[in-house]
Amino acid sequence: MTTTAVKQAAADSQPKVVARPPARRGDRLKTYGPPLLAFGVILVVWYALAGYLAAQGRTTILPNPTRIIVDSFAPADPRDTPITADLLSSLALSTGVALTGLAISIVIGIVWAVLMSQARWVERSLFPYAVMLQCVPILALVPLIGSSLGYSLESRVLVCVLISLFPMVSNTLFGLQAADRSSRELFQLQGASRWTVLTKLQFPGAMPAIFAGMRISAGLAVIGAIVGDFFFRRGQAGLGVLINNYASRLQTAELWAAVLTASLLGVVIFLVFGWIGKLAVGRWYEPSA
Predict the structure, then answer these.
(1) Which of 50-64, 70-84, 93-107 has the lowest mean pLDDT?
(2) Distance from C-alpha of 106 to C-alpha of 133, rounded to nearest angstrom
(3) Does CATH number 3.50.50.60 belong to domain 83-281?
(4) Which residues of 128-149 are buried (b: 16+ CB within 10 A; e: fewer)?
(5) Rounded to an integer, what distance in angstroms lies between the CA atom of residue 273 and that of residue 213?
(6) Quick check: 239 and 262 in contact, CB under 8 A?
(7) What is the CA radius of gyration of the chain?
(8) Distance CA 237, CA 168 (A)
(9) pLDDT tens-digit profile of 141-192?
């Protein structure tokens, strides 16, 4: 009787997955039409602004997308080397650093939030340090990290962790504390242990918030990898080093190609975690009231 009641409360607390009808052509148009339209508008504005600046002789500020692609990957001058190889190697390094830092942030953030969710005094003791970590200027810490730990790959990963940790802590804590009050009281009446409440009630209901934190931290981890590269310029060059080199050489087209690649990396990681979140909690869900 007791076990049945606890299981029923846990099932009620989980996100409710609603069956989605088969996609129709009109639904696909509504889904993909607006983003494609927005992308087209951005391209038109980009070309117009680049043309206006070129007419004023300011071609080095904003080249048009065609020039970025041609100058970066298929230069007309045979003396110019395409940046494909350098860009791919730097992208691989920055991706590894960002994913490693993100994975560490996810583990530490979830454990940190679980500890704070168990007692108010623990939350009051630990949460201020999470806020301090978010508020400290990372640019002030990066030189300190480099002088203390060196300029290796581990230092870049640490920068990613420091930048991307807070969203995981705050979102996970919010999700764990948002468990339905009536379900929590039912668990207490049935004498459920803290572990049972955590695994059967709090975690299932917190999954949407946890994955939202992962998506936010994913973009911040990419920023951390780029910021680390700007200061730790030793060893293999990541995207940050590549961006800095192109900026110092006034290679505008190549600079824009590297910046756009870094942006696309963040978007891809964001979308991957969004897809994983849909697999975990269902394509559609309704949070507990």
Answers:
(1) 70-84
(2) 15
(3) no
(4) eebeebeeeebeebbeebbeee
(5) 10
(6) yes
(7) 24
(8) 28
(9) 777 777 777 777 788 888 888 888 999 999 998 888 887 777 776 777 777 7
Residue showing tokens 């200061």: 231
Count CB-CB contacts under 10 A for residue 196. 15
In the block, tokens 């043309």 appear at: 51
- Give the tens place of pLDDT for each residue, 12-66: 555 454 445 555 666 677 777 777 888 888 888 888 887 877 777 776 677 878 8
Coarse DSSP helix, strand, coil percentages of the chain, rounded to the nearest 5 percent: 80, 0, 20
As given in the structure block, the two tokens for residue 132 are: 């301090």
Q: State the pTM of this model.
A: 0.77
CB 71 within 8 A of CB 253: yes
Say if residue 209's pLDDT is above 90. no
**Pair of tokens at residue 104:** 């560490």
* One-letter amino acid for residue 280 of the chain: A
